[in-house]
Amino acid sequence: MSQPAKPVRLALLGCGTVGSEVVRLLNAQAEDLTARIGAPLEVVGIAVRRLGRERGDLPVDPALFTTDALGLVKRDDVDVVVEVVGGIEPARGWLVEALRAGKSVITANKALLAEDGAALHDAAAEGNADLYYEASVAGAIPLLRPLRESLHGDRVTRVTGIVNGTTNFILSSMDSSGAGFSEALDEATELGYAEADPTADVEGFDAAAKAAILASLAFHSRVTAADVFREGMTGVTAGDMASAKEMGCTIKLLCIAERGPDSSGQESVSVRVHPAMIPRSHPLAGVGDAFNAVFVEAEAAGQLMFYGRGAGGTPTASAVLGDIVAAARNRLSGTRAPSESNYAHLPVRPIGEALTRYHISLDVAERPGVLASVAGVFAQHEVSIATVRQSGRAEDAKLVIVTHGAPDANLAATVEDLSRLDIVRSIASVLRVEGGA
Q1: Cβ-contact 273, 289 below 8 angstroms
Q2: Helix axes of 165-177 and 238-246: crossing angle, nearest 10 degrees
Q3: Which residues define the annotated binding site for NADPH?
Q4: b/e for 306-330, b at 16 or more Cβ within 10 A?
Q5: Spatial CA neighbour of 20 closest among 320, 323, 290, 326
Q6: In terms of CATH architecture, what is 354-433?
Q7: Per DSSP, what are the bridge partners of residue 358?
Q8: Catalytic residue IDs
Q9: Which residues, in sequence order, are CB contacts of 255 under 8 Å at separation 6+?
Q10: Which of 87, 232, 238, 240 is nearest to 167 (CA)?
Q11: What is residue 372's three-state secondary structure?
């Protein structure tokens, strides 16, 4: 009769919203997890900031809690380290220590991966250890593993996604109700979708970190958050939403990563996060509430879409558990997860070289020659106009212009010169247009 397998021993760093859900799921699904892995999972320690904090009915022995995270990571009886604390330091030091010691690491830390994922991947290679981070982007949606493994034999050309639930809720609310940004943000805060300080979400920092991770995997090149062009969505108005509706569009905060030639013809990648108009026929246009969705385009596989809840304790914990199962199985079989694939070393081209389209709303003087003067500025910068719509009279005169595709630098220079025309009272809004609208 065979002996039962020894437990795979886990150290959990962090026991907040996500960490506590990980503990609950480990307890509730213990029997199934043991059957899937071939050995039981055992939590041998949980690092927290404060020992005295009330943790409700969490099914765990209080003696497992410690404030010495590094000491826990270094223990000989730890096989897998699960980090759900967040932030750059001290998390980076803990995880590098674990990986160099050959311990598997599961992390949901998008900020660390986007700023210095290289340190973690290098430590994993040094320690011959697994590094999993499915929970760092899009919560429970199985997205990173398909990019990392399933599409490894294909050539991904573009990734377009809604990867922040807070901003998607706000923009969806603005679209459906006609509310302004402030009112929609207040609603998101009241419902618990927005943090007390929503800056990381509404200014695009969260989405930019995720965009860097997605681009790194999709294009086999190291991309950091600093490489990502970022523009928040606080400037999107109810008027912008109304204008988008008139065009058969909606507005989403998108992360866009694409592969292609730069201005000199060299293969490169462009990675950006910004609000954009997309046609209502686009698959991402119907993604509402706080849901996430990512649209992947590859040469052989074609178009793929991944959709689901991208945040919250339980969805994120689900992704963490999936990584725990994978890492535990690898330890039992003596195998490793796929290592980092960064062979392409593609440079990141600046936003100015990205091909995009603009929707520009101008408050203009009502007098002869206005349209000709405005069109002359576009021609000067070699930007072709797709449509022009004029509305209002006197002080309410407006021009709404949608361009054809052009380098972003040309479009930005066009807007700058338009602002200097004496016939342009103000530039009411500028939004990029994606998806063939």
Answers
A1: no
A2: 70
A3: 110
A4: bbbbbbbbebbbbbbbbbbbbbbbb
A5: 320
A6: 2-Layer Sandwich (3.30)
A7: 432
A8: 210
A9: 159, 160, 161, 162, 163, 207, 208, 210, 211, 214, 271, 272, 273
A10: 232
A11: helix
Q: If we measure between CA atoms, which residue out of 241, 133, 140 comes closest to residue 181?
A: 241
Question: Is the CATH code 2.40.50.1000 the one for domain 8-141+314-333?
Answer: no
Global confidence as pTM: 0.94
Distance spanning both ends of the chain, measured CA to CA: 67
Domain ranges for the chain? 8-141+314-333, 143-309, 354-433
- Strand 267-279 to strand 131-132: parallel, antiparallel, or no bridges (unpaired)? unpaired
The per-residue pLDDT string of the chain (437 residues; one tens digit each, 9 = 90 and over) reads: 456 689 999 999 999 989 999 999 999 999 999 999 999 999 999 999 988 787 778 888 889 999 999 999 999 999 999 999 999 999 999 999 999 999 999 999 999 999 999 999 999 999 999 999 999 998 889 999 999 999 989 999 999 999 999 999 999 999 999 999 999 999 999 988 888 899 999 999 999 999 999 999 999 999 999 999 999 999 999 999 999 998 899 999 999 999 999 888 899 999 999 999 999 999 999 999 989 999 999 999 999 999 998 777 888 999 999 999 999 999 999 999 888 999 999 999 999 999 999 999 999 987 888 889 999 999 999 999 999 988 777 677 889 999 999 999 999 999 999 999 999 999 999 999 998 75
Query: What is the rounded distance in angstroms from the CA atom of residue 434 to the CA atom of residue 328?
Result: 42
Token output for 26: 């480990």
Nearest partner of 82 among 14, 162, 172, judged by Cα = 14
Identical fold between 143-309 and 354-433: no
CA-based nearest residue to 346, from 409, 230, 262: 262
CATH class of 143-309: alpha beta
Cα separation, 134 vs 312, in Å, equals: 14
Residues placed in the known binding site: 13-20, 110, 195
Query: How many angstroms separate the CA atoms of 255 and 164, rounded?
Result: 9
Q: Which residues contact 395 (CB under 8 A, 6 or more apart)?
A: none
Known binding-site residues for NADP(+) equal: 13-20
- Which residues belong to the annotated binding site for L-homoserine? 195
